[in-house]
Amino acid sequence: DGGITQSPKYLFRKEGQNVTLSCEQNLNHDAMYWYRQDPGQGLRLIYYSQIVNDFQKGDIAEGYSVSREKKESFPLTVTSAQKNPTAFYLCASSPGPDRLGEQYFGPGTRLTVT
Amino acid sequence: DAKTTQPPSMDCAEGRAANLPCNHSTISGNEYVYWYRQIHSQGPQYIIHGLKNNETNEMASLIITEDRKSSTLILPHATLRDTAVYYCIVRVRTGTASKLTFGTGTRLQVTL
Fold first, then answer.
1. Measured at the alpha carbon of residue B84, what is the angle toward residues B83 and B88, in degrees to the nearest 5?
2. pLDDT tens for each residue of B21-72
3. For residue A109, which of A45, A21, A35, A43 has the smallest C-alpha distance?
């Protein structure tokens, strides 16, 4: 089945540790995105990538880093510099420059930092 | 991107049609209407989109008024699994990859 996978579903870390969230898609989509969602809030864009080896900061990129070495993979690292890392993280992809409004989301990773 | 206005919540009996309205009075000529939904603790799910003609797919129908200032998402036979927050988003279809701006949406509760 084609789709987007995120792992793990739940992740627990101690404060001060970096953590990497996985996002893989087999939809052959060009663009990929990382969003963050806090309880009762909307989605906020962290980073996005339109093509391999290229990515752009979103609205809340501070304390996060990404890479896009392969078309199908877009991992997100939450660094110790992120002040409030506990949140629900969502990865998405979109087919191409003529279908940017269609974004397909993974199941999300719920990160808890204590 | 144009701003949208949706009612905060709606109820619908299972098996009946759910009609979810959205106002987008400042929509531009090249902006499309997109609908997504988010079931609790899951990622948002793309449902349908349209420009000015009515659209239908296996999930829903989208009715856009002639002046394009409002639209209605129709779930023809709502089930309990359709309980979710539904988001109406207006944006251009092409160009540079960018975020989807999810507002507060409509919380649809389907009941027995």
1. 130
2. 999 999 998 899 999 999 988 999 999 999 998 999 999 999 999 999 999 9
3. A21
Q: Tell me which of A43, A90, A91 to substitute to probe the interface with B (most B C-beta atoms closer than 10 Å).
A: A43
- Indicate the helix (H) or strand (E) that contains B74: strand B70-75
Chain A contacts of B91, Cβ < 8 Å?
100-101
pLDDT tens-place string over residues A54-91: 999 999 999 999 999 999 999 999 998 899 999 999 99
Q: Are A90 and A43 in contact (CB under 8 A)?
A: yes
- Tell me which chain B residues have a C-beta less than 8 angstroms from the C-beta of A56: 97
A42 vs B102: CB contact, 8 Å cut-off? yes
Task: Show residues of chain B in contact with A5, CB under 8 Å.
Answer: none
